[in-house]
């Protein structure tokens, strides 16, 4: 690694950063999958970690999701959910993340007989320990699986609501993920209206594989504040102008987009174009155990491919803080620290 590559990485590491698009089940590394499978007496269809890892050759979103849901099948106990989440926080600390907004997919677990309480308890114990021991704050985004019905989403919300008070410091938002094509935002209009009445913050995946119109519908029908991915917005100039005018945040995940073939290569990614047009974009890792890099790797590999400068990286990190659900005063405190990180240029 050259000196300048090293110093740009160190500069970026030192920038206070928020990670806003991270599926906690997507942080399950092969070694932890094997450890939990053994602990829970589950037989995996792979003889060892290397052969599981070798299967991470995705052709599209669905080919990834099939493996991702299978991997999540090793999570049974509160300790399993804790171990997965704590491992993420340790990596987050190493990358200079100061705040994380973490998506989780309860339907993946409750459908296997895992209690909603077990999921919440394991995630929350890790999040509270991360706050006290690592100084990393976090919120949870309970995400509905869009390949399932809206009725299933309502049942999931009903199962989770009794826990709201106990986890009020963490569970503040609702998301929508899984297979995008053929599952438009309109399918979830009623559940989003209900979650809005309940005063949850709202986000949704849109415009990853699905068309720009899904981004528009997520904003207009679901009334989300933030779009996860959203890179296909570029296909619709009027939508682009709307995103600029309203400073809508897009939580972009460059390495994910390459692994899932949304773009052919990182140097063809539109992040820099979106940034230069004045969109409120930030960088995130999505499912880092599957896509070959955590947050800092996403920043650095993208910087290399798109020739991002220190000023771009600072803007991306600032966007992540400003787009977070942290109270404005806390955002500002981190932004002040960010402005004081020295760069070479
Ligand atoms: N669930 C986990 N990762 C996802 C992604 N990139 N898109 C949609 N659903 C997901
Ligand atoms: Zn995602």
UniProtKB/TrEMBL annotation:
Binds 1 zinc ion per subunit. One of its GO terms (biological process) is nucleotide metabolic process. Its EC number is 3.5.4.2. The gene is add. Residues 16-339 form the Adenosine deaminase domain. The active site is at residue 208. It catalyses: adenine + H2O + H(+) = hypoxanthine + NH4(+). The keyword Transmembrane helix does not apply. Substrate binds at residue 287. GO terms for molecular function: adenine deaminase activity; zinc ion binding. Catalyzes the hydrolytic deamination of adenine to hypoxanthine. Plays an important role in the purine salvage pathway and in nitrogen catabolism. InterPro entries: A_deaminase_dom (IPR001365), ADE (IPR028892), Ado/ade_deaminase (IPR006330), Metal_Hydrolase (IPR032466). It comes from Alcaligenes pakistanensis. This is Adenine deaminase. One of its GO terms (cellular component) is cytosol. The record marks 229 as: Important for catalytic activity.
